[in-house]
Design brief:
The protein has seven helices and 20 strands. The strands form three sheets. Strands 1, 2, 3, 4, 5, 6, 9, 10 and 20 form a nine-stranded antiparallel β-sheet that branches. It has 307 residues and is of the alpha+beta class. It has helices at 26-30, 52-66, 79-91, 164-176, 220-231, 243-247, 279-292; strands at 2-3, 6-9, 12-15, 33-35, 38-43, 46-50, 71-72, 75-76, 98-105, 119-127, 139-143, 181-185, 191-194, 198-203, 206-210, 236-239, 251-256, 260-267, 270-271, 303-305. It is globular. It has two domains: 2-127, Aminotransferase class 4, branched-chain amino acid transferase, N-terminal domain (D-amino Acid Aminotransferase, Chain A, domain 1), CATH 3.30.470; 139-292, D-amino Acid Aminotransferase, subunit A, domain 2 (D-amino Acid Aminotransferase, Chain A, domain 2), CATH 3.20.10.10. The structure holds pyridoxal-5'-phosphate. Pyridoxal-5'-phosphate is lined by residues 37, 159, 167, 193, 196-198, 217, 219-222, 255-257.
């Protein structure tokens, strides 16, 4: 990651190195925050933020679940104001391909009662590049020993800061075993998702992905791929997927804002399909790239132009 120049904090743009919070802030101590990760792409019509409205909507939904007030620096924010603040941050940083807003309890408070603890919003912008590294030969996955926390433990459909320790543990487990990523099963033993990506399989001529009720994050890239792949003529089903179905799939790929479309060629030391990046994941990855970079204007509704 290359850091940006300015960070938006409670209504003001300040230098990256000056963006600080107190060590006793509730969010720092207990993970009480909700964040988003959003991509910025160059298109023929200038910079565009991919599906910004949907990202803001998901973040505001997460704040509703957490019961956060959306008042920052004495002003009340709705989805439009948060959208505008993100755009302002992108405009004021020169080399941005990723933007990360976060709303968190910034008040200094000891104890688990989050009622009446003041919140803050911070928006950082940076250059991330390729999140998972080179994927020409596909990614290696392990099945994590950590379980995807289900909806009875934490709101799986919201990007709540504290919930991400499970993803960090699973990612570390993967990296220690020489893999790129980890896939997590849910409490029923079904395939849920990866540490920061949803998962798709291509099996018997159909594209399958876990249902949103399987304790997954309802990914915006996932939603885009379901629509685009359907338009390309593929049958796409949201369903239950077992570990056996995953390992014996013809193709597997992950989707996420940071990872984009990342083909998987090995899981737990077993080759997926031919062990090479498959035709369908290649085709879908190529189409997704055309969509996000504004080369296929059929999906221009998803591009939020910066200027
Ligand atoms: C746990 C998890 N699953 C899936 C995703 C993919 O979601 P999206 O496509 O909205 O980035 C992310 C990334 O935000 C994530 O953190």
């Amino acid at each position: 990651m290359e850091k940006g120049e300015l960070i938006w904090l409670n209504g003001k743009l300040i230098k990256w190195d000056d963006a600080r919070i107190h060590v006793m802030s509730h969010g720092f101590n207990y993970g009480t925050g909700v964040f988003e990760g959003i991509r910025v792409y160059d298109t023929p019509k200038g910079k565009s933020v991919f599906r910004l409205k949907e990202h803001v909507h998901r973040m505001v939904g997460g704040c509703k679940i957490m019961g956060f007030d959306l008042e920052f620096g004495g002003k009340t924010y709705g989805e439009q104001e948060i959208y505008d603040a993100i755009m302002e941050t992108v405009r004021n940083n020169s080399n941005v391909d990723y933007v990360k807003p976060c709303i968190f309890l910034s008040g200094e408070e000891v104890g688990l009662n989050p009622v009446n603890v003041p919140s803050s919003m911070v928006i950082s912008a940076m250059f991330m590049g390729n999140y998972l590294g080179e994927s020409d030969n596909g990614m290696k996955l392990i099945t994590s020993s950590w379980q995807r926390p289900d909806n009875l433990c934490s709101p799986a459909g919201a990007k709540v800061n504290g919930s991400y320790i499970t993803s960090c543990l699973a990612k570390k487990e993967a990296v220690r075993q020489g893999a790129d990523e980890a896939v997590m099963l849910n409490s029923c033993g079904h395939v849920a998702e990866c540490t920061g990506e949803n998962i798709f399989v291509y099996r018997n001529g159909k594209i399958l992905t876990p249902l949103t009720s399987e304790s997954i994050l309802e990914g915006i890239t996932r939603n885009s791929i379901i629509e685009v792949a359907g338009d390309m003529g593929y049958t796409v089903e949201e369903t239950l997927i077992s570990r056996a179905q995953l390992i014996t799939a013809d193709e597997v790929w992950m989707t996420g804002t940071a990872a984009e479309v990342a083909p998987v060629t090995m899981i737990d030391g077993r080759a997926i399909g031919t062990g090479k990046v498959g035709k369908v994941s290649k085709e879908i990855g190529k189409k997704f790239h055309e969509v996000v970079t504004g080369k296929d204007l059929k999906y221009e509704k998803w591009l939020d132009y910066v200027n």
